[in-house]
Structure formats: structure tokens, C-alpha cells
Amino acid sequence: MRASTLLNSLLGLSGVRAGKTAVCDGELRVTVSLRRRRLCCPQCSFSTGHRYDTREVDSSWRHLDMGGRICRILLRRRRLRCPDHGVLAEGVPFARPDSRHTRDFEDLVAWLVTKADKTTVSSFARVAWRTVGAICERVVADVLDPDRLCGLVDIGVDEISWRKHHRYLTLVSDHDSGTIVWGKPGKDTDTLGAFFDELPDGGASLEAVSMDMGPAYAKAVRERAPAAVICFDPFHVVKVVTDALEAVRRQVWQAARTLPDQRIAKTFKGARWALLKNPADLTDTQAQTLREMKRNGGILWRAYQLKEALREVFAGDLDTATVAELLNRWCARAQRSRIPEFIKAGRTIRKHRAGIDAALERGLSNGRHEGLNTKVRLLIRRAYGFHSAKAALALILLACGPVTLKLPYHTGGHPHSCQ
Ligand SMILES: [Zn+2]
């Protein structure tokens, strides 16, 4: 086999011919030329046989490593004039527009970042974390199923904080497929309004939308899809009560801080997860904290018991009528608790009762939603440090959206072997 044939086969880049090869600063640099004579616009499908001028643009792309070395593809690009995009350097078949990486390299990074943490991705691929964010954005634009917003029936809307200081994303999930189909920075009525703008049928197929008990999303649904039933799923009902419990814990902790014995305050400060986690998931230390709290009794222990009682209402495999009855009893109990946060939580639940019952009747269960939510939260932590909300959103859609990510080695015959 000739060396040039071998090199072309190793690179695996379509539409180019490998030329001069050099090792520079430890990197393998391969100069290539395009096989096609026509010039293509990188932004659209326009192509032409005419160069705009004789100038050539020196360009380089990072490709998959070869033998452990960073590999760069070098090419002098000609210029063309596109009627829509003006004068620009021609597009290449092996890279997405405006990228300094080949498509294969980007696909590898996108696959990896949905499976592994930040440090693993950055050190394995040898790219800055910001670059990973930009790669996610480009890949998701390419692989997201364009039909994902057609014929949606049951959907869920959620807000999630993607960064400190109240930076939020609104996410829409499809309850049938268990995937996230849409997202946008922000969390108000207009944010969700933009989702309805993008729906091909304007929301005519929607039957139910589940959400939290805040007013913003409900308003958008009432305005844009008035036929859809607004549901408050168990996940969000329990959240109202875990928020109440957290408010009580913070008050108890603040009060304990003024005491001479600082150890007590420390116990309450560290108790957050012990109180919020399901009892079955507690670590030994957290279980110990909880036992201490039980011994001391007091308002926080009563609040904890109320939270657990509500969680159990939805945790069991009970029929709708039983759950409804247990919920009535829970609200009465909260009313009598003499804990202001829980009296308020009971009132909130009662006020939104029609939507809660609607969720129960439609079987919008906890398990699946919680699973998706846990996954999103894990990814959001990974997206900390991305430069933009769009990049964080792109990562979530790559990992939880209706997409099939392929490793570059598997684009041929084995689409499923890389899952
Ligand atoms: Zn163009």
C-alpha cells in the first residue's frame, strides 16, 4: 500500500486528498486538498464554479488523534460570493460551518460529554471546557429530530437553574417518549410562549400539560392551548412540601446559631440532605443525624414527619381514589400542625387540587419524571462553567433529547454498538 493511500484511509475524511504531512510541536499536521472543484457556501446549499478572487484563506481543523498525537488538518480555502451570505471562505465536507474541529472530532466529544464528567472529557479530548460547550451547540443543531414537536399529547414543563444567581432554563418534556424536546433560557410566561410559537400545529394535539404550581406556565398554557388540561404532577406537589421543610430547617438553624453551643447549629446546618432525601437513600451519617433529630423532637421533626407522610401518599401503588382521600387527610393534618410553612403548603395544595387530581387520573406518575429530572440535574452540574445558557441547553438536549449520538467509528454498519 502506498503511504498516501494509507494516510487517506487513516484520516477517513470524505471529499479530500491528503498531501504534505509534518510533525510540528508534537502535533501531526496534514495538508489536504478538496476533491471537488465547485465552491460551496458553508452556510447554505449554494455552490458555484467561480472564485470570488485569487485570495486563499489558511484554515485548520482539529481531527481525531492519531497514535496519541493531536492531528490537525490544514487547507487553503478559496473564496466565493454567496447571494445570501456574501463573500466568504468555501465550506468543507468534513467540518460544520464556523468550527475549528472536524465533524468526527465534534461527534466524539459530544458522545463523551453525555457519558462522562468535565475533567474526564477535558483531559481525554484535550479541549477547553468552553470549547466543549460550543461543540455541543453545533452538534445538537445537527442531530436533533426535526419532527420532535409534531403531535405532542402529554407534556411536562419545568424550570431548572443552570447557574448560580438565578439563571434559569425552561424545559419541555414529552411524557410519552420520556425525552426533553424543547428548552429556552428564562422561566416566565413569554419563555413558554416561544414554545407554542414553534409548534407546527400550534398546540392543537396537546391534551395535558404538567407543571409546578407557580402562575407563569399556567398562564401561557391557558392563553395558547386553552383546550389542554393543566396538571400538577406528584413531583411538584411533593416539592412544595420539601420547600416548606427546608424553610423550617433554615429557621431552626438560624435560631441555633445565637446559642452559645455552636454544635447544635452545626447539626441543623448539615441536616439538609438528611431531611430531604428518601429514608432508603440515606448515608450512615445522615441516618444518625436524623435519629438525633427524632430524639430531640421539636418543630423540625414534626415538619419532617409531615413531609414523609406526603411523599408516601404518592410513593405507594395506590388507586386514584385512595390517593385523593389520603391527600385530603394530609391537608387537614397540615392545617392543624401550627407550623406556618406547612399550613401554607396545605393551602396551596388544596387550591390546586383540580390539577393534582387531573394528573392522577392521567397517570402522570412520579417515577419517570423524577428519573428524567435526576438526569437533568446531573447534567446541569456538568454544564456549570459553560459560557452560555444555550450551551447548557445543548448538553441537556444531547443527553435527554430525541437524538442518536454516534461515535465516528460507528457511522457505518453498527449504529447501536456505541450506546
Ligand atoms: Zn450561503
What does this structure look like?
The chain is built from 16 helices and 12 strands. The protein is of the alpha/beta class and 419 residues long. It folds into 3 domains: 1-100, no CATH class; 154-232 and 365-402, Nucleotidyltransferase, domain 5, CATH 3.30.420; 234-351. Strands 1, 2, 5, 6 and 7 form a 5-stranded mixed sheet that branches. Strands 10-9-8-11-12 form a 5-stranded mixed sheet, with helices on both faces. The protein has a two-stranded antiparallel sheet with strand order 3-4. A hairpin with a 2-residue loop joins β1 (16-24) and β2 (27-34). α7 runs antiparallel to α11 (298-315) and α12 runs antiparallel to α13. The chain is elongated. It starts with a helix and ends in a 19-residue tail after the last helix. Mean pLDDT is 88; it is low at 413-419. Bound molecules: zinc ion (ZN). Residues 41, 43-44, 46, 82, 84-85 line the site of zinc ion (ZN). Pfam families: DDE_Tnp_ISL3, HTH_Tnp_ISL3, Zn_ribbon_ISL3. This is ISL3 family transposase. Residues 40-85 form the Transposase IS204/IS1001/IS1096/IS1165 zinc-finger domain. Residues 155-391 form the Transposase IS204/IS1001/IS1096/IS1165 DDE domain.
